[in-house]
Amino acid sequence: MDHFERRCPRLGGNVSFHYCTISGDADIPCFKIFDCWWEYFDVVAYLKKTLTEEQFHRLVNSKPKPKVASLVDLIGQAKKNSKL
Ligand code: SF4
Question: Nearest to residue 31, comparing CAs of 9, 6, 2?
């Protein structure tokens, strides 16, 4: 699934599913991952299997940040990932 791609409604360009799994706060995926991927595959089952119970709970209860703050975070994360 990591290679799946879709247009990111927050960034405007294509991102891989892998990117979505690492672009959230701390060690959890982006808070929109359920909304963005449910039509492609069973993302809930996948994340239940791959995250710890505590990470999954935090993800389900994560809230969106104000748009500017989350954009700044996404840009910072993209810069960090481009150096890997
Ligand atoms: S899950 Fe987040 S990073 Fe991934 S496409 Fe959706 S909004 Fe973009």
Answer: 9
| 2 close to 18: Cβ distance less than 8 angstroms | yes
Ligand 1 proximity of 15 Cβ (cutoff 6 Å): yes
Q: How many domains does the chain have?
A: 1
Helix (H) or strand (E) holding 5: strand 5-7
For the Cβ of 33 lying below 6 angstroms from any atom of ligand 1, the answer is yes
- Residue 6 CA to ligand 1 center (angstroms) comes to 8
Residue 14 tokens read as 């294509």
The residues pairing with 6 across neighbouring beta strands, listed in sequence order, are 15
* Residue pLDDT, tens place only, 33-81: 999 999 999 999 999 999 999 999 999 998 776 667 667 777 887 888 7
Structural domain for 47, as ranges: 5-82
Identify the residue with better confidence: 84 or 83.
83
